[in-house]
Structures are given as C-alpha cells and as structure tokens.
TrEMBL record:
Domain of life: Bacteria
UniProt xrefs under PROSITE patterns: YJEF_C_2, YJEF_C_3, YJEF_N
Name of the protein: ADP-dependent (S)-NAD(P)H-hydrate dehydratase
Biological role: Catalyzes the dehydration of the S-form of NAD(P)HX at the expense of ADP, which is converted to AMP. Together with NAD(P)HX epimerase, which catalyzes the epimerization of the S- and R-forms, the enzyme allows the repair of both epimers of NAD(P)HX, a damaged form of NAD(P)H that is a result of enzymatic or heat-dependent hydration.
Cofactor note (record): Binds 1 potassium ion per subunit.
Organism: Actinopolyspora biskrensis
Boundaries of every YjeF C-terminal domain copy: 225-508
UniProt entry keywords in alphabetical sequence: ATP-binding, Isomerase, Kinase, Lyase, Metal-binding, Multifunctional enzyme, NAD, NADP, Nucleotide-binding, Potassium, Transferase
Gene Ontology terms for molecular function: ADP-dependent NAD(P)H-hydrate dehydratase activity; ATP binding; kinase activity; metal ion binding; NAD(P)HX epimerase activity
Record text on subunit structure and interactions: Homotetramer.
Length: 517
C-alpha cells in the first residue's frame, strides 16, 4: 500500500525537513535518484551509459535545478550532457555551475523567433531527455516556449518529480504535456501520478528517498498494490464450509435481459468459493450458465445471505424499485450498481429502507455520479469523498483511475494505466466480485480496492493473453517492467474478462506470497 500526498502537504513536510537538513543536500539526494534512473533507462534503450547523450530541458525553478545536478552526475559517468535553458536568467545557479564544471553544455532555448535550431537539435539528439521544466509549483498548462520544446522531444523521457504540463494536484492536462517513460519523484507519490491523464503520462513512477518520510503526515489517499489485494483475498481454510465463506445474494437482470444477471452472478462465482444465490426473473438463464448457483424468482424467497449485489439490468421502473427496497430492508452489506444507483438518485424515500449502520457501496460511472451529486466529478477524489460523506456510503467512482471513498474520509485510488475494462457488461462483473468480497467479510473499503484491482488486471490478462506468459504481459521492446499502454492487446468483451478473473486472483495471491518471503 502506498500513500499519496497533495503538493501542499509535501511542501509542508519539506519545510520541516529543511530545518534538519540543508536544502542543497536534499536537492543532491533528489538529483542522485534522477541520475540513477536515467542511467538505467540509457542501459535499456541505448544499450549503455558512457558515450550516450542526454538532453536536459530546464525551467526556472528547483525542478530544473534537480535536472542540472543530475546532469553533472551523469557527466561523471561519461555521458554527454546538453542543457536547454527555458529561462536562462532565472536558471538554478548552483546546478548550472555544477553542470558546467563537470563539462556539460548549456544553451538558451529561445531565439528571436521561438526555439533556436540548436535547441531543437539538442532535443532531437538526446538518447534520453530529462524533463526539468516544472515540478510541484506548476500552474496551468505549459507556457508557449516550454510547449514548443516538449513538442520536439522524440527520445524516451525521464520526468523530474512529475511530467511537465500535468497538474500536480489533480493529474489533469490542459494542452501539451510531457509523456514520460519514467517519472522520478521524491519522498511520496503526488495525486498527478495516479489520477486522470497524469497516471498514464507518468509512465513508471520511481520513488526516491530524500529523507522526507519522517516529516509526512497521514497520506491524503492510498493506492493498493497487487500484494495487498492478494493478502486480503478470501480463500477457504480447512475449517470452512460453503456457508462459512459468505453467501452472496444477486438481484440483477430481467427475463428479457438476462445478460446482466449472468455476468453479475458470474463475477461472484469466480471471485471466491462459498455460495451464491440469485433472485429474479432471469433465474432459468442463470441456472443454465452457473449450475452452482441456487436461483429463485424473488428476493423474498432467497434464504439467508451475508451481502447483496443489486442493480444491473433490474430496470428503473416499479419492479426495479421494489427489488432494491426489499434488498435494502434486509440490513446486509449491499453493493448497488447501475439501475439501483439511478433509483436511489431520484427517489429519496428509498433511503429510508436502508439501515445507516450497514455498509452500502455505490459504484457509479461519471454519468451515474452526476445523477447522485448533481454534476459530473471534476476533482474526482474531492467529489467522491464529499458524496460518500453526504450519503453515508462507500462511493466507488469508476474510470480509468477509479476512486473509492469511505464515509469517514478514507480514499483509495486505483490507477489502472489502461482502458481494457471499458467494455459493456464489465461493470456487472465488478458488482458481482465486490458483492462476494463483502459477503466473505472483507472490510468494505479494502474490498472495493481489491475488486477494482483484480478486475482491471483480469481485463488486461484477457486483452493481452499475458497469463500465458508466466503472469507477465508481453511488452513491446522487451521491457518487462513497462506499463500496460505498451502491451500488445486485442479488444475483449465482458465474458472474456470474467474468464480471466481466476488468473488475476492467482497473480495477486502469488505477489502476496512473494512479498512475505
Ligand atoms: N524544495 C526543495 O529543495 C526541493 C525541491 N525539489 C524539486 O523542486 C521542485 C519544486 O521547485 P519550485 O518550487 O522551485 O518550482 P518548479 O516546480 O521548479 O517550477 C517553478 C517555475 O516554473 C514556472 N512555471 C510554473 N508553471 C509553469 C507552467 N505551466 N509551464 C512552464 N513553467 C511554469 C514558474 O515560472 P514563473 O511563474 O516564475 O514564470 C516557476 O518559476 C520539485 O518539483 C522538485 O523537483 C527537490 O529537489 C527536492 C527538494
Ligand atoms: K518535470
């Protein structure tokens, strides 16, 4: 599990650190980390370090200072280094002196009409480009000269702290921005590394210890790693029977639209052993697809369950409303998706059926969220947190970066880095998976985080066939640590995702086992 801190809180921790350790010492630590990861990337992409060429794109602040110091260190390893200075009269003085003393070159980016041809040549020549344009103090989209320079970068980029052009606090991008192969950040992750377009633009994020950790407070939110999901995933113990592992009730689909029922129920069956009961008009179709499910026609006939998954395909008319009200009255943990969210958004009386002490998880995409909150989410973390608090629910806001907020203010984010789950019926599978984790007694916020992570990984496995490669996706360029965007894949449907859920579970469980060795 990794913490994520807002830029303001990182800065506050930095202030406390600087009372104990001189600022230039901290900057040298940061630059050491940058130089290390540049060397690694040169090894991967240029086949070695000495004799290769690195271009630094340097802005006016300390972010540029980090890049210049890293350049000086790289000179010491025989790397040719050219710094392109976007603001020569405001460049970090000590960093520039260090680079020049080490034999690096520096040139002004701007000529009489935009970028000089020398600057363009340097940006094109680098085997790796270091992005030191702007870091934590970034405001708005890239300035025109910086934007023009970024447009000429063709080589793989190591971003210092964050990819320039990405808003540090939200991950949103306005106009041109750097797409990094590797982002080297300091002390703690920032929201831009895991949210919105920033997550994909950050590439592989590498955290460097600059001595900040003791000065950081509680993180603003956290990111689960595969080993966290693996450690929490329920598996039967020798004392277990089918009931003790948690029984899930599924109320989804209709006679004319049985697909939602089959996918939701399937998500539950593939997630954990134990038992799944189905209640609704698609009982025959569900029995046929999933003979292990006990299927009945209505919620009232279902028998005891430990949790409910309700909503996909139940409709938003009176039948759907009745099903949802009946499920809520049982005072068991509930995951409510799709039509159930629409019903809850427009019918305040439905909330009266709910026991406020019992966990209720809502899993909206942005459109459904707008029905609940009155507007589409902009700052997704703040929006999810506020809506979770207002309704007293766990709010799982689906998207490329999925945000899960608990009513007590805790937030988990899952940056999937790929969009393979964006396929019809995929949300139904997630609802079933999450319901089964709730039925098994997994703490609700963690259950949400685990379900989202495994669901996203299952989609990736289905799209790329990566489970056939020993659990690792085949990567373009042979980079085993590369991110999902560089994975070769083919579009999938939700049934393929569902079929890959066990492989994804095995993978996270293997990661958990490896991490305790
Ligand atoms: N404190 C420390 O010792 C440590 C700090 N560390 C490092 O320092 C970084 C923070 O440094 P920082 O605060 O100096 O600001 P920084 O992000 O470099 O940018 C400021 C300049 O950029 C400009 N600018 C703004 N927006 C822009 C845009 N959209 N497009 C283009 N330009 C834009 C703005 O220009 P102005 O508005 O003045 O014209 C301003 O002058 C942090 O990310 C980390 O790398 C590490 O070494 C650890 C120790
Ligand atoms: K940067």
């Amino acid at each position: 599990m990794r913490g994520v801190w807002t830029p303001d809180r990182i800065r506050a921790a930095e202030e406390r650190l600087f009372e104990a350790v001189a600022e230039p010492v901290v900057m040298r630590r940061a630059a050491n980390g940058v130089a290390l990861h540049v060397r690694r990337l040169l090894g991967e992409r240029a086949g070695g370090v000495a004799g290769r060429h690195v271009t630094l794109l340097v802005g006016a602040g300390n972010n540029g200072g980090d890049a210049l110091w890293a350049g000086a260190l790289l000179r010491g390893r025989g790397v040719g280094v050219t710094a392109v200075l976007l603001a020569p009269d405001r460049t970090h003085g000590e960093g520039l002196r260090a680079l020049r003393a080490a034999g690096g070159r520096a040139l002004a980016a701007e000529g009489s009409s935009g970028l000089t041809s020398e600057a363009v040549g340097a940006l094109r020549r680098g085997d790796v480009v270091v992005d030191g344009v702007v870091g934590l103090s970034a405001r708005g989209g890239l300035r025109p000269l910086a934007a023009e320079a970024v447009g000429h970068v063709g080589a793989p980029v190591v971003a210092v702290d964050l990819p320039s052009g990405v808003d540090p606090a939200t991950g949103l991008v306005e106009g041109p921005a750097v797409s990094a192969e590797v982002t080297v950040t300091f002390g703690g992750l920032k929201p831009c590394h895991v949210l919105e377009e920033g997550a994909a633009r950050s590439g592989r994020v590498r955290l460097v210890d600059i001595g900040l950790i003791p000065y950081l407070d509680e993180p603003d939110f956290t990111v689960l790693d595969p080993e966290d999901a693996g450690a929490a995933w329920p598996v039967p113990s020798p004392e277990d029977d089918k009931y003790s592992q948690g029984v899930l009730g599924v109320a989804a689909g209709s006679a004319s639209f049985p697909g939602a029922a089959m996918l939701t129920a399937g998500g539950a069956v593939r997630t954990a052993s134990g038992m799944v009961r189905y209640a609704g008009p698609a009982a025959d179709a569900v029995r046929e697809s999933w003979p292990e499910i006990v299927a009945t026609g209505s919620v009232g006939d279902t028998g005891r369950v430990q949790a409910w998954a309700v909503g996909p395909g139940i409709g938003t008319g009176s039948n759907g409303r009745e099903v949802l009200a009946r499920v809520l009255e049982e005072a068991r943990p509930v995951v409510a998706d799709a039509d159930a969210i629409t019903l809850l958004a427009r019918d305040a009386a439905l909330w009266d059926a709910r026991d406020p002490e019992t966990p209720l998880v809502l899993t909206p995409h942005d459109g459904e969220f707008a029905r609940l909150a009155g507007e589409r989410p902009e700052d997704r973390v703040a929006a999810a947190r506020e809506t979770a608090r207002r309704y007293g629910v766990l709010l799982l806001l689906k998207g490329n970066s999925t945000v899960v907020a608990a009513p007590d203010g805790r937030v988990l984010v899952h940056p999937s880095g790929h969009a393979w789950p964006a396929t019809a019926g995929s949300g139904d599978v997630l609802t079933g998976m999450l319901g089964k984790l709730l039925a098994a007694g997994v703490e609700p916020l963690r259950a949400c985080g685990c379900a989202v992570l495994v669901h996203a990984r299952a989609a990736e496995i289905a799209a790329t066939g990566s489970a056939e490669h020993g659990g690792r996706a085949p990567r373009v360029g042979g980079d085993e640590e590369g991110r999902a965007e560089r994975t070769v894949g083919a579009p999938i449907g939700a049934s393929a995702l569902l079929a890959a859920v066990p492989a994804a579970i095995r993978e996270v469980r293997a990661a958990a086992t490896a991490s305790v060795r």
